[in-house]
Amino acid sequence: MKTPKAGLTLLIMFSALVGFFVKPVSAQWLRDKIKGAIQARVDKKALEQEVASAFYEIEHAGRRRTYYLYLPSKWDKTSALPVVFLFHGGGGGARGALYYYELEKKAEDAGFMLVAPNGTGEGEHVLLTWNVAFGFGYAQKNNVDDVGFVNALLDELAGKYPIDSKRIYATGLSNGAIFCHFLAAAPGNRFAAIAPVVGTAGGKDEGEKDWRRPPEPQVPVSVCIVQGLIDEHVPIEGGLQKESLGAPKEMWSASQTIDLWVSANDCDKTPITSVDNKMNTTIHYYKNGRNNTEVIAYVIHDMGHAWPGSTRVPRAGSDKPSHTFPGNDIIWEFFRTHPRP
Question: If you average pLDDT over every residue of the chain, what do you get?
Answer without folding.
Answer: 91
